[in-house]
Amino acid sequence: MTKLAVVLAAALVAPVLITPSIAGADQRQDGPGVPPMAEISGKTRGYIKAPPSAFVEHGGPEISKILYVNRCTGGCTFTKSTYSDAITNNTIIGEFPVGTQFTVAEFAQSEQVWNDTLQCLRDAYAPYDVQIVTEDPGAVPHHEAVLAGTWRDINRPGVLGVAPLDASTCEPKNNVISFSLANDHVADGLQLCWTIAQESAHSYGLDHAFECTDPMTYIGDNCGQKFFRNKASPCGENGPRDCLCSGSTQNSHAKLLSVHGANATPVPAPTIAITQPANGSTVTAPFSVVVGATDKRGINKLELLVNGWKWAEVPGSRNQAFLVSVPREVPDGVLDLTIRACNDLDICGAQTITVTKGAPCASADACLTGQKCEAGKCFWDPPTQELGDACEYAQQCLTGTCQGLSDGTQICTRSCFAGPNDDCDEGFKCGAAIGQEGVCVPASDDGGGCCSAGGDRGGMGGALAVNLGLGAAVGLMIVRRRRRA
Q1: Burial status of residue 459 (CB atoms within 10 A of its CB: 0-12, 13-18, 19 or more)
Q2: Are residues 252 and 354 in the same domain?
Q3: How far, in whole angstroms, is CA 213 from its chain's centroid?
């Protein structure tokens, strides 16, 4: 027997398992045809038990790329059934006896709200190979996202949206009909988008996420446009809980990518503009780079590269203006300053300016360990050393880290998580190098030792990103590359 979770998006007024604090997110509840609360697994979510035929494949198990958004022009008629089939308009949704036909009223919001909602939905699904259509695709496998009607049409008081979810495996399903009850929403494309993105994604196996910028959330309507996020977010409604099928976190982006694959047309990179200092100017330490960066998904991080080497990474935000300080350790000379602004998909936009700090270098003696001096610039050659290779300084390593071992040698390594299934390469274990826990070391190393990897200059210094609109520090990440003694 397959457990079928009916996940209801709403602010319900009856006694329920979960009461959301906002409208626009979905909710599970007790109701006709649902077992008593004592019979509901987990006590925080309701589901009805249904045979495997509750989901109709039509054409095999391959998941369709078609997402049909139906505005129900003139009204849509559905039949309450024991299974969901978008091709024949049979649905398990609707509090009616099996066999009852019911009608969902057509989309009653303005054309502007319709267009805004569709554009927002397309933005949300843009990274994936999904075809969003507004014409009935007919007798081919698809998902049907009804964007019309009110709770009265499905006989669910207060509900704003509802979708079936296979709660036994959290596997994606074909021919699912979800309902986003547009005529009960305020005239706001972002609110409607929130609901229809969440309900349609349930058919692809997504649980709720306790993350306000993800459409799978219940949290607040002040988080801006919501996207399926590339991050491990706790599952849950009004607080974290275990995920429906396994684990405690969900990566909505990774889940949809595994279901549909990537869109052949990549998501546009963030736009970025360096406003200060001026290109070609002369600067004195300390100085900062003023950056404007925008992306629909928000800016997840900013990176500072000086003459090709990444000196710092700072967290981004939904704000558009940032201040990135250039570390004092950067040697004098001609500096090519590159700022990379990346969204949560690690798609980045970049801009480079050239300034001169102090005097241009005349030789490598004015530079840091391992650097060369050409055309007045101190720079490191691109790294070539692999994990485990001998190194003298971090900038030789493709991993960006050079650490000392118990025998006094230094190798290129990287951070890792420990345990029987650690993430180090074959022949390595997640152990301790000198002065640092949780790095990949040769499996034969005993983790002891006496020496660090050098002095105190060079490499990835501090960079501070300031939200200029709030005048507050966004974050700081410092990793220092050491100069040889």
Answers
A1: buried
A2: no
A3: 9
Indicate the average pLDDT of the chain: 81
Least reliable range by pLDDT among 29-33, 221-225, 375-379: 29-33
> Where is pLDDT greater, at 451 or 114?
114
- From the list 304, 218, 305, the residue with the least C-alpha distance to 23 is 218
Structure tokens at 217: 């959330």
Residue 300, CA distances (Å) to 211, 297, 348 in order: 15, 8, 10
What confidence category does residue 219 fall into, taking pLDDT thresholds of 50, 70 and 90?
Answer: confident
Domain end among 233, 260, 287: 260
Q: Are 172 and 276 within one domain?
A: no
Average pLDDT over residues 431-435: 78
292: β partners: 273, 321
Position 386 scores a pLDDT of 94
Residue 9, φ and ψ in degrees, nearest 5: -90, 115
Q: Would you call 139 helix, strand, or coil by DSSP?
A: coil
CATH of the domain at 344: 2.60.40.10
Q: Distance (Å, rounded) from C-alpha 24 to C-alpha 160?
A: 6
Does 29 fall in a domain? yes
Residue 201 located in a structural domain: yes
In this structure, are 65 and 162 located in the same domain?
Answer: yes
The model's confidence at residue 55, banded by pLDDT at 50, 70 and 90, is confident
> Does residue 419 sit within a domain?
no
Is residue 317 within 8 Å of residue 299, measured between CB atoms? yes
- The residues pairing with 441 across neighbouring beta strands, listed in sequence order, are 429
Given a contact cutoff of 8 angstroms between Cβ atoms, the answer to whether 110 and 84 are in contact is no
**91 close to 80: Cβ distance less than 8 angstroms:** yes
Across the range 136-152, mean pLDDT stands at 95
The 10s digit of each residue's pLDDT in 89-118 is: 999 998 999 999 999 999 999 999 999 999
Single pTM value for the model: 0.78
Between the CA of residue 129 and those of 161, 226, 411, what are the distances in Å?
24, 19, 42
Q: Which domain holds residue 337?
A: 271-381+458-476
